[in-house]
Write a structure and sequence with these properties.
single chain, 452 residues, mainly beta, 15-stranded antiparallel β-sheet, 4-stranded antiparallel β-sheet, 29 strands, binds 2-acetamido-2-deoxy-beta-D-glucopyranose
């Protein structure tokens, strides 16, 4: 892949002279933001994925498969990100709650509604185009602005190539975080006018009930090309239920006071997940950081860290502790010289397991890991062959509802196909994985041993 240098891109951007605040591209669709439109009928087709259990040293392949359903749409392009289920809006009898997902190369966000089982093992749904956004990745939902109004969301936008086509409303912007409501987009981040003009490539947005939000600035070529501003930012919002501005913001520091930013040879925080809040202190919570370096599909750098964060009403959040987490996946599940490529994570409803997605070829999948110990339990593999073309398909986002073995539990996993050859075509799939079966890869059914 060939990229222009950052200064050259900036020069182009300045010459183009577009102001990007609450940009030209980001806007809710007038007739569908609230989801009350018909949408397009779509069908998820059944696929079986492989369940591999982890012995502590290697994978054991079971003959058990996990039922999943795959939705492929031309409109998706090759980059889907940021799936987000809305469990409280689930209708009785539906297979899964409404699901939001973003098409990063087509600047679109959809709501996939009325997800129900259909004949021939398929799953039917209605796909609704709810908003334009500049290279959207993940979303974080916030309550409606008015009684009876639609939910709003913060969207992390990030495009290291700067040009966002939108609906012929092209703009030059690297990205940021916008609050999208039924009428408009409001830019929260970057905070300073200069940074806001150029934008920053934001990958992940999550907020805590205390009103503090966090944004990871990460470029996929992190650690391959200069990416010095790839840092993890905090933002104290005007109000947890109405986050229209950052009243204070900065770069999150670790327990020694060092800023959490890209380090050569380690990468930067790509995805992160806010974990449990302490039962005795609503201002103290866990935060899982997923570090990734290099935009390649085999080698690179990945590791995870579990932080304990304490916020006060005023000022920067404090990291009070930090420990390595999930080394079964990052250090043991692949051989030396290869890398898993940590992506995003979701905590199940029991708070017992964290599901982590990874995108590199030697272990492309989703992995159930113990919340407290970080130990790997089992992995779901086979996602790279869900789309039957010659391009590499990889995990690019994860969310879920329920927990392993509990009725009605589903994982929502987004995929991408390898960038750089997209002119030769390509697709991406939105997967729903049925984790309510609670099958286990019992050693009695072991057919092969493998180390992927
Ligand atoms: C797969 O497992 C089932 C029990 O879950 C067993 O009856 C069957 O024989 C196994 N098949 C193979 C090929 O091992
Ligand atoms: C795209 O822009 C055209 C021209 O402004 C407009 O008529 C059309 O409705 C827009 N489409 C969408 C999906 O927003
Ligand atoms: C919370 O506080 C109660 C009462 O002081 C104590 O018994 C309990 O262990 C605390 N829980 C945690 C997780 O710290
Ligand atoms: C995991 O691997 C990384 C990089 O190779 C190394 O720095 C770290 O110490 C390893 N951690 C464990 C627990 O083996
Ligand atoms: C999901 O798994 C459960 C438990 O095996 C099963 O009852 C249900 O029919 C499955 N649903 C779909 C759509 O696969």
């Amino acid at each position: 892949m060939v990229f222009g240098s950052a200064p050259a891109l900036l020069a182009t951007l300045l010459a183009a002279g577009h102001s990007a605040e609450a940009g030209q591209v980001c806007r809710p669709t007038p007739d569908c933001f609230d989801g009350r439109c018909l949408g397009t009928p779509v069908e998820f087709l059944p696929v079986d994925l492989q369940l591999d259990s982890w012995t502590g040293l290697s994978y054991v392949r079971s003959n058990t498969s996990v039922r999943a359903h795959s939705l492929v749409q031309k409109d998706f392009g090759i980059f889907l990100h940021g799936p987000k289920l809305r469990p409280k809006q689930r209708k009785p009898g539906h297979y899964a709650p409404p699901l939001y997902v973003s098409g990063s190369l087509v600047d679109k966000i959809w709501r996939i509604d009325d997800i129900q089982t259909a004949p021939a093992g398929a799953v039917a749904a209605s796909m609704k185009f709810v908003s334009w956004a500049s290279a959207p990745s993940t979303m974080w939902f916030v309550p409606p602005a008015r009684d009876g109004g639609p939910e709003r969301f913060l969207v992390a936008e990030g495009n290291p190539f700067f040009l966002n086509p939108g609906n012929h409303t092209s703009e030059m912007w690297a990205g940021g975080v916008d609050l999208v409501d039924e009428e408009k987009c409001t830019t929260l981040f970057p905070v300073s006018a200069l940074d806001r003009f150029a934008g920053k490539v934001v990958n992940t947005v999550e907020c805590h009930a205390s009103g503090y939000c966090f944004f990871s600035v990460w470029k996929f070529y992190d650690d391959s090309l200069p990416s010095n501003d790839d840092c993890l930012y905090w933002c104290q919002t005007s109000s947890p239920d109405d986050p229209t501005t950052c009243t204070q913001s900065g770069i999150l520091t670790d327990e020694s006071g060092k800023q959490i930013c890209h380090v050569s040879g380690t990468g930067a925080v790509h995805g992160f997940m806010l974990g449990k809040t302490d039962v005795n202190n609503s201002n103290s919570f866990d935060m899982l950081l997923l570090y990734t370096g290099k935009g390649t599909f085999d080698t690179g750098e990945s590791h995870m860290e579990m932080l304990k964060i304490v916020v006060s009403n005023d000022g920067a959040p404090k990291t009070v502790s930090r420990r390595a987490w999930g080394t079964d996946l990052t250090n043991k599940s692949i051989q030396v010289g290869h890398d898993v490529g940590c992506d995003h994570a979701w905590t199940d409803d029991d708070g017992k397991y964290i599901w982590v997605g990874s995108f590199r070829e030697k272990n492309d999948g989703v992995h159930m890991m113990d919340y407290d110990t970080g130990k790997l339990v089992h992995s779901i593999h086979g996602i790279s062959s869900v789309i039957p073309n010659s391009k590499y398909t990889y995990v690019s986002g994860i969310d879920g509802t329920g927990s392993w073995g509990k009725p009605g539990s589903v994982l929502a996993v987004a995929t991408c196909q390898k960038y750089g050859t997209q002119l030769t075509g390509g697709e991406s799939a939105m997967l729903l994985i049925n984790i309510s079966q609670g099958v286990t890869a019992a050693p009695a059914h072991v057919t092969t041993e493998l180390i992927v």
